[in-house]
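Annex B. Sample input.
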Amino acid sequence: MEHLYRSPKYKGTTTSRGLKYHYYFSPAVSKKPTLLFVHGFPSFSAHWINQITFFEKEGFGLVVPDMLGYGGSSIPKEPEAYVHALQAKDLIDIIDEEKLGSNVVAVGHDWGSVTVSRVANLYQDRFLGFAFLSVGYLPPSTETTYEELRNQWAAALGYVNIGYWEFFASPEAADIMTRHTRAYNDLGWAQSTGMIKYNFCPVGGVQNFIESESSTPRATYLSKEDMITTEKLLARGGWSGPLSYYRNEITDASREADKAIPAENYTIHKPVLFIGTAHDPIVVPALMEPLIQQFCTNSATTTVEAAHWAFWEAPEQVNAQLYQWLKRL
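Annex B, continued. Sample output.
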């Protein structure tokens, strides 16, 4: 993964709101679509390495940015700068910089799926379709608070799955995670999905685990070298930027931005692919699928036998599902 970051294919641009984005760019061959890969938390453009390698060989164009708060992109201090609707416009600026027109497919994972959702709400005509990994299409949320969403999902699952949002959104989280990075990375990339369910998901679980310097084996699909690179990149940029995504969900920032999106834009008519992660205790496919059915008129849904980090754990499955869907566009 580290060698990818040294690739001359990385570029930089400044968007219309004055923010710098660092991104991997590879032009398409024979008029094939360009794939815009949008990562989530805590992640980087190079985490898509298995998809970059596969789809580049197949002739697809690639735009793979470090999202705000990560890698070589800007790290604004104001949480409001990370609002998904604003980053959606940033992505359009990058696409325009590369003169890609509308021959583009956006692919999101984790918070990147929420950003891609806002891209679909605001700029649907600029894309051939939208694909979502783990986190599905999420329509604008103008009224539902974090507490209401947490309780709704807990009632459906029988356990709290997003209790960690409260710690991540707290003022002290960045400092605590900086002081206990090893323990957090153990938990965040734990081999055991049960460890995630019982120590990551509950309210207070993450903070208790890392402040006690607990440990657990990390997933074997992430090499030691790739984990070292990830830790270096996180240390370089710090936690404050990445945690801003959660602060906006706990406060009204995201809801206020979503209020500007017309209700008719909630429905997505372009082709949509949702790849659910069968063993993810946080983003359970059954929570995502009803929204896909309700708001996406031309959708395909599938699952892969993996947990949250499916693009690492099951890259062959993810690539195959995405490739087969792309061939039908």
